[in-house]
Amino acid sequence: MGVRDAARRSGLIPRRFRSGDKASHELTYWRDRKREQGDLERGNVHYEWVFTEHFGIPREFYAGKRLLDVGCGPRGSLEWASDAAERVGLDPLAREYQRLHSRAHSMSYVTGAAESIPFPSAHFDVVSTFNSLDHVDGLGRAVEELTRVTRPGGHLLLVTDVNHPPTPTEPQSFSWEVLDRFTSLGWRVIARRDYEQPEGNMLHNLRDAPRYDHSRPGGRPGLLSARLERFARP
Question: Which domain holds residue 46?
C-alpha cells in the first residue's frame, strides 16, 4: 500500500493542505512501515530493476555519472549504483529519513525541495523522480528545477501517478499532459509507457499492471513512466 492509499483509508482527502501536514503524514507513513517491516532497506531491491531493465538502460550506463533522485524517500534508492561518480537523494525529510535507517547508506542524502534544488545548473547526468512529482507544492517550479540541474544531453527518469484526487502527501493532481511541461522546456521523450492504476505498490505496478486503455472514458487514475533527454546546447 502506498502513502495515498493510507490517506484514503483514513478519510483524509481535502483539496488543500499545509506543507507541515504533508510532512507529518509522510513521516507517519514511513514510521509505520518501519514498525511493520523492520529494516526499510529491505524494500530497495526493486530500484536497480527500475533504473535498468524497466527503462531499457544497461547498468554500465550509470558508471561515472552523477545521479540525483528527487523525493528519494528513506529506503536507499541509489544504493545499487556503486559505479556512479555521485549519487544523491534529495528530499525535504532527508534528515528525518536518515534516522529511520538501520545501517549507514553509501549514497548521500540532502535536505531540500524539488522547487529549489541546492545544486548548480547542469550538475547531474541523470535525474530521477519516482512517485514524487505529485508530492511537490509548486509543479511548474519543480519542472524548471529538474531541468536546470540536468546537463544538456542528460536524462530524466519519471514515474508518477496521474488523475488521482489530491491527498495530504500528494497535493498535485495532473493528467497525462504533464509531459508537455517538460517538452516545452527542451526535453525529448525517448520512451513512454502508460499503465492502469491498481491499488498497491507503485514499483510492483510497473511489473504487473496492464497498459492503460486510452480508448475507454478518460479521467480515471493511471501510472505514467517516461524517459526523457534534455536537448544539448548547439
Answer: 3-230
Place of cell 547508506: 105
The continuous run of DSSP H or E covering 24 comes out as: helix 19-37
pLDDT in tens, 74-113: 999 999 999 999 999 999 999 999 999 999 999 999 999 9
The grid coordinates of residue 152 equal 544538456
Amino acid at position 22, single letter: K
Amino acid (1-letter code) at residue 96: E
Give how many domains the chain has, as a whole number: 1
175-182 LR contacts (CB < 8 Å, sep 24+):
176/222, 176/224, 178/133, 178/139, 178/224, 179/224, 179/226, 179/228, 181/139, 181/140, 181/143, 182/143, 182/146, 182/147, 182/156, 182/158, 182/228
Q: What is the pLDDT of residues 111-145, one digit of tens each?
A: 999 999 999 999 999 999 999 999 999 999 999 99
